[in-house]
Specification:
single chain, 33% helix, 5 strands, Rossmann fold, alpha/beta
Length: 153
């Protein structure tokens, strides 16, 4: 009998501020109160297309919006990926990510993950972090490095 292994998901833990939204772009207003940086969206879409990754939102925006609302917002910005969930609230972002990883109960297993954030303190998850400049956001250079991490099984 053929044994079918569960699919292994690639995960991008995604912050918004400093990654997709910069200080200068946040001065541009839309119905959500901020707009994304088009180059950052392009870099994220490149990363998603290259790695078939799913998103888990770590941004503090998850405190004001539901996962569905954040998914719709990302789609309105042109992001082409499925939002798998949001991290729980905790004292440190790295702890929130670890709790999400430990509690994930999907039918697919987690393969590898990368963290896109402008914060630098990720504790024992630092090796999976791509740190962005909060004034520039996500770049193609960041996206290529993230691709390498997600393809490193």
């Amino acid at each position: 009998m053929l044994k079918v292994e569960p699919r292994r998901l690639n995960i991008i833990f995604l912050d918004f501020d400093g990654v997709l939204v910069t200080e200068s772009s946040s001065f541009l207003r839309s119905s959500t109160g901020a707009v994304s940086v088009p180059d950052a969206i392009g870099a994220l879409n490149y990363l998603i297309a290259e790695t078939d990754a799913y998103l888990v939102i770590t941004s503090t925006w998850r405190l004001e919006y539901t996962a569905q609302q954040l998914s719709e917002l990302l789609q309105s910005w042109g992001v082409r990926s499925h939002v798998l969930g949001i991290t729980p609230c905790g004292s440190k972002r790295s702890d929130e990510i670890q709790v999400w990883l430990d509690e994930y109960k999907g039918s697919d297993a987690i393969g590898v993950f990368v963290i896109l954030d402008d914060m630098t303190d990720m504790g024992n998850l630092s090796s999976r972090l791509i740190t962005t400049d909060s004034q520039i956001g996500l770049t193609m250079s960041h996206a290529r490095r993230a691709c390498e991490l997600l393809k490193d099984r």
